[in-house]
């Protein structure tokens, strides 16, 4: 079972880039082979991933995830190819469909017809990454640049989508290299996500897709405290319809039941259930995100998987 880790910038860091670089170096020293970075309103995840991968040769980097709204795919392609060249082939592009609860207050707008936008966004990216040019005119997005759109050393780029609904999974299977779901438990992975995306990929004549499952993790002997941290960190996702649907499909009593909490041994046992369900790779997402959090136990655990 292969596992990477999500790196979380420390809230009190004097310099965010320096902090993430320090974390990535230490994680790599402990044996971590891949790190992921989440897009925030404050920093750009693709640029940061490129810096990390360039500074630490041999460490794979990725974004988990960059929302497709309000980003035009040509801009995403420019950033991703630059990051891939900087990391000498170690960059992975993870995209998300976005969330209205975030986008409406931040940008003063939201983007309906999300499945159509996803299909058109991926179609443009696929054309750029696979052929170096694009001439596409969709109902939501168009791209027909008169300048070169490929960066020397910037391809190929694996593209993953945080797809969890049936329509998004089908589009992802057709046009991307896999999915990177979060808070999708073993039952959801095995009974729904894997068969849905695998069929879509096969029907499109594409290779078997990757299912890189992100799991919230907290290695701790204080279970009550760990559960309280999990409840605080995960409650936000209950407000997003796509996550509510996944949680309901899993049939758990509480969202915290989807977290891997406890001793290293018990966490590994829970993580193995994802592999048994069909996950091809795991991403360990730290639940404790305080300045004082010690992530080395999680990094060491990821290195052993």
Automatic annotation (TrEMBL):
Q: Which residues form the Luciferase-like domain?
A: 16-280
Family annotation (CDD domains): Tetrahydromethanopterin_reductase
Q: Which SUPFAM superfamilies match?
A: Bacterial luciferase-like
Q: Which residues cross the membrane?
A: none
Q: Which residues form a coiled coil?
A: none
User: Mind telling me which InterPro entries this protein's record contains?
Assistant: F420-G6PD/mer, Lucif-like_OxRdtase_MSMEG_4879, Luciferase-like_dom, Luciferase-like_sf
Spell out the protein name for this chain. LLM class F420-dependent oxidoreductase
Source organism per UniProt: Mycobacterium paraterrae
